[in-house]
Write a structure and sequence with these properties.
The protein is of the alpha+beta class. The chain contains ten helices and nine strands. It has one domain. Helix 2 crosses helix 4, helix 6 runs antiparallel to helix 7 and helix 9 crosses helix 10.
Length: 299
């Protein structure tokens, strides 16, 4: 579930990379070796990210303050594990869904530590150590272990993907759950559904891929999403947010973006044994994201 993963339907010709958990991880992993060199704290991090979030019912004893957007979005500051773009304040995003209030704790420190270690472990041998030095890994692992010991129920409510939305994320949603929204940055897209429905759809996706004979390396990332969601209550809300990745597309492209429908149609064709149909629908989805996803490799 954490680290570098193949996208679903990868045998049809495309691969995806998901840096799970943390947008600011991308800054941290680059600067883990260079933070001592005095990188200017006012620099801006040129990384776009999409998010998969889980919101749980707000309880009377919830003590996290509501998230407040920073005055200057995208300004990077220096931390002990590198450069941070996201606010390090412990707070929670909130939303109203079906007349009830739900919260999504951001847990930036937890997500950064998990993401940093996952990134290191996804590159075996000397490569991982070159990208994230061993002393940084030891300090991050010790702090993460302390968090787990002191907060046994601590978990990440947010997965983050740089530059694109992994196609497997769309499998959690019905096509008609797509919403075109207007944000401060412009037009964007989001999907929302109940956790129980998202899990059912992802479990069905795993079954379809298994029946079709896909390799475990293709199935495991989807199954990892199932495992991650299983940690949350059935009535939780799952949200796919294009985030700043939406800025990579024109408004017209976003209005015409039907990736969830293409993924659903590909899975349905695959389930029916129509490999050509499955490949055609997948090609539509993959083609839509090809340019944005190529940025992953150029970075």
């Amino acid at each position: 579930m954490v680290g570098t993963e193949h996208d679903i339907f990868a045998t049809f010709g495309a691969y995806g990379i998901e840096c799970a958990h943390s947008h600011h991880l991308l800054a941290a992993m680059v600067s883990a070796r260079s933070v001592s060199s005095g990188a200017p704290p006012s620099m801006r991090l040129m990384v776009h990210a999409a998010y998969l979030r889980v919101y749980t019912r707000q309880r009377a004893d919830d003590d996290l303050p509501a998230y407040a957007a920073p005055d200057k979005a995208g300004v990077v500051t220096e931390g002990d594990f590198g450069l941070w773009e996201e606010s390090i304040r412990e707070d929670a995003l909130q939303l109203e869904f079906d007349g009830k209030t739900f919260v999504c704790p951001r847990r930036p420190r937890l997500r950064m530590l998990e993401g940093l270690l996952a990134f290191h472990h996804s590159f075996p041998g000397m490569t991982g150590s070159m990208l994230v030095p061993e002393d940084v890994v030891r300090r991050a692992a010790a702090e993460l272990e302390a968090i787990y010991e002191n907060q046994p129920n601590a978990r990440s409510h947010i997965l983050t993907s740089a530059w694109h939305v992994p196609l497997r994320w769309f499998a959690a949603f019905r096509p008609d759950q797509r919403e075109i929204v207007t944000t401060e940055a412009g037009t964007s897209i989001r999907y929302r559904t109940r956790r129980s429905d998202a899990s059912d759809r992802l479990e069905r996706t795993v079954e379809i891929l298994q029946t079709a004979g896909f390799d475990e390396s293709i199935i495991a990332p989807v199954d990892g999403l199932v495992s991650w969601l299983s940690e949350f209550a059935n009535d939780s809300v799952v949200e796919l947010d294009y985030g700043t990745v939406a800025q990579l597309f024109d408004d017209g492209d976003l209005v015409l973006d039907e990736t969830a429908a293409d993924v659903t149609s590909s899975l349905e064709a695959l389930e029916a044994g129509d490999l050509d149909g499955a490949s055609d629908h997948y090609a539509l989805a993959a083609g839509r994201w090809a340019q944005a996803q190529a940025t992953v490799y150029s970075n």
